[in-house]
Amino acid sequence: MNNIVLINPFPTGQGLNDATVEPPLGLCYIAAVLEKNHYVCSIIDANVERLSNLDIIDRIEGSPSIIGIYLNSFLFNVSRDLAAEIRKKFPDSIILLGGPLASAIPETLLEEFSCDGVIRGEGEYAVLGIMNNISAGRPAFDETITGAVYKQKDGNIRYNDLKRITDLDELPFPALHLLPKLKMYKSRSRKRPFAPIVTSRGCPYGCSFCSKDIFERKITMRSAKNVLDEIDFLVKEYGVKQIDILDDNFAQSKKRLIDILDGIIIRNYNLVINLQSGVRIENLDEEILTKMRRAGIYKIAFGIETADEKLLDIHNKKLNLKKMEEVVYLSKKLGFLTYGFFIIGLWGETDKEFDKTIAFAKRMDFDVANFCMAIPFVGTELFRMVEEKGKFLIDTRRNIDSGFYNGRVFYEYGDQKETDILARYNRAYKEFYSIGKKIKV
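Below the sequence we write its predicted structure tokens.
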């Protein structure tokens, strides 16, 4: 019998990135820690299998001690409905909620969902602690469960302290064996099968549009050896031919970056490696980029967001545009596919600032430019800006049924109205992808 069932629901919103469906590594890490401690665990990835909530219920066997549900802003409604159905069929199971929204609005989730508790931050040892309590006949929640938010017997809500995992090397590799076959997942891949890895957690920067609820502004990094050991495992156990590196701070430590690249080169696996989530440029130069090519990295994505210095300052985006130009030029010279990520409708943007951004994107001649709508996710500084001085057109405090690429405007600010922002969004794609410009993958 499964002691724990972990669920990744299927979002139903429009404008989500259907071209990329990665394995849910967060749930896989939790499952790996549970299995290491001799608990039986299963994962239902409804996202890749496109399962309805009823399909998910049918997949749950026996009477699990814990049923955990992942949720983000695009999963609020579907996860709330799922939790209610689970409560009806499995009244004795502990229902846990985790993921970005659990860290951003735990009290809201505790009040509106059929659940027993919410886990803020990293979930590996929190879920293990709850399972250990249940196995020992103790109450599921107590003060030792890091990041837990739950109702006490007196009805008051308790917020446990959140403790970061400082040594990521102590975690077992994600339990990919509990997922559907890797070939079911989708990536803009050059070789298959592919697998994702995360080599660091957190971010030391303070961009207004990113939440700091989970990791604050602290970064923890796996050692080069541990990353290389996982690549060895993926190649030998799963025959992986492409690695997608998902964290934003793969290049944060230059020494670690060099050690990882040198280790991959020495292994000569003939892998292709995709830096699709974006990479910081501070440590990138021609020597490093050449080494990255030798290691098999073929695509680099850069998060520019805006090419206007004033907007970069407003949104605390620490970016040297001159350095960005140099790195993009070198990347193209060395044969990388280059992707540029831009945000349309950032607080303070007008046609003047947008013109600088589109001119920059065209001058850099990225192979692909992604222009997405600014979304003021709850818990971000951008959300607070809109809450205090702007006007929400879409309530992002709960469910968001429209993604980055659906062409919907989420808020208005100053004298900038929905029609102004939408016009810039449409102009971005029209002007960048002019006749003859082909998208490369």
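Residues 224-238 form the longest helix (15 residues).
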